[in-house]
Amino acid sequence: MRHIAPFVCGLLFALGLGLAGMTRPDKVLGFLRLEDPDLMFVMGGAVLVTFLGFPLIRRRGRAVLGPTLHLPSTTRIDRPLVLGAALFGVGWGLAGLCPGPALTDLVTLDPGLLLFCAAMLAGLALAPRKRDSCG
Asked: What is the pLDDT of residue 130?
């Protein structure tokens, strides 16, 4: 169960991204330009599920399929957070992709997508390692 649950969750996530059209850069860019509102419903659904589900999970105090619930230990908004969010947003706006949909869409073997993922992995490799603030 330890390896099956993450696999099933990842598979459901990938299927959801594909069904919603988030693996299509043209659709995402249309959404970001406010020309295609379809993804607004996807985002609204995600916000609604989080809004309703997160308080239940916090009250439970432990993970459903694991021994520990990892939550951020800080709520401070600092420079690295703002810069990271800005870099993510600029990248999303330029490419029409973010990491989840890009990795999901790798099955297409699109050369531009392969370059995007290579650049993303290079950025991850070059980023300084810092202990995360969860748990």
From this structure: 64
**Pairwise CA distance, residues 133 & 113, whole Å:** 31
Three-state DSSP class for residue 11: helix
Integer Cα distance of 98 and 13 in angstroms = 14
Report domain extents, the chain.
Answer: 4-126
What's the CA gap between 1 and 7, in Å, rounded?
Answer: 10
Distance, C-alpha 93 to centroid of its chain: 15
Cβ atoms of residues 70 and 134 within 8 Å: yes
For 4, what's the count of Cα atoms within 13 Å in the CB-facing half-sphere? 2
pLDDT attached to residue 131: 57
Interatomic CA distance for residues 18 and 79, integer angstroms: 33
Q: What is the mean pLDDT of each run of 10 residues along the chain (135 residues)?
A: 82 88 87 86 89 87 76 85 89 85 86 88 80 51
Amino acid at 111: P
Cα distance between residue 9 and residue 132, in whole Å: 22
User: Is there a contact between 104 and 115 (Cβ–Cβ < 8 Å)?
Assistant: no
Here the tokens at position 11 are 């598979």
